[in-house]
Amino acid sequence: MLKEVISASLGLSTDQYGYWDGLNILDPFETPEAAALVYVDGIPNLSDFFQAENVQKYSLILDEEDFQVFSFVKDRIRKHSSGGSVLNVALISLTYDVSKHHYNQLTLVKNVLDVFGEIQVPKVPKLSLNSLKYSIEEDYQFLSELEALKAVTSAVENTKPDNKIDFYDFWFSSLHSLADYHGPASQQVKEAIKLLST
């Protein structure tokens, strides 16, 4: 159903009519130019961890793999419009020193450059952490990828309107290895999710 929700939110026709309480289209001629999707690998249901008050939550059945959703939405955008940006990025790749990595990672970073220009992912700042440790590789990798997510979010927010449909699909992967290392119900995972939700 996720691919249908994304398609409908961009004003594209859908194959199936799927009613979802989390999307209300008031004017089908004034739809967003872009949709950004962030997959967080490692936690089956993030909404259980968000404790914000006065926030309405809507469950959404994810019955497809992330690559299937991306491929489907990409094809649908290409059929309905031309010239928009369609991007699939593993956020962790933005934290690498690209001069030391494989061609596929260089291509990924080049695609990001083509869409957003240069994205400066800052070094991990010193935060007041309770459970996560900078000295543990899995913890540091999570904090580094979190900085990449913040940088990409800023780039998406600062994208200038161009009357073309864009779709950005980002994959946040380091929470999975953090949960594997510390345990899915650990204080480290809870702190990581709290940082991710702010």
Overview of this structure, please?
By secondary structure, the protein is mostly helical. It has one domain (33-196). It has six helices and three strands. It has a three-stranded parallel β-sheet, sandwiched between helices. Helix 4 (137-157) packs parallel to helix 6. It is globular, with a radius of gyration of 18 Å. The two termini are 26 Å apart. Mean pLDDT is 78; it is low at 101-106.
- What is the beta-strand fraction? 5-15%
Proportion of residues in helical segments: 25-40%
Total beta strands = 3
With strands numbered from the N-terminus, the spatial order across the biggest sheet is: 1-3-2
Q: Rounded to an integer, what's the Rg over CA atoms?
A: 18 Å
**First-to-last CA distance:** 26 Å
Q: What is the general shape?
A: globular
Mean pLDDT, all residues: 78
Query: What is the overall number of helices?
Result: 6
Sequence stretches where pLDDT stays below 50 over 5 or more residues: 101-106
- Main sheet summary: 3 strands, parallel
Order of helices and strands: HEHEHHEHH
Structural class: mainly alpha
Number of self-contained structural domains: 1
